[in-house]
Amino acid sequence: MSENPEHHYTEGDVAREVSELETKSATAARIFDLRRIIGGLFVVYGVIVTVTGLTDSQAAIDKAQGVNINLWTGIGMLVLGVFFLVWLKLRPAALPQEPEE
Fold it and tell me: What pTM, to 2 d.p., does this model score?
């Protein structure tokens, strides 16, 4: 059996398909938001560097002229990472709205 090549879609079918595609697009935009990636990486690396700073020996601190550079850098990275993630939560990515005719 061959299908009728002149199959006509109803307005409801087209509207449903457009709605599904818009939902998929919005989901993809949220998943690949750079703030999520940057924030997540800064938090992970911040934890690693902070733990390193907490376990540094006095010799390593003396090598940095008495400043526990790993601890302070790790805390800074954690703050920056949390900032990006909070920013993402407070201002989620919005798709541009097309003007209605």
Answer: 0.64
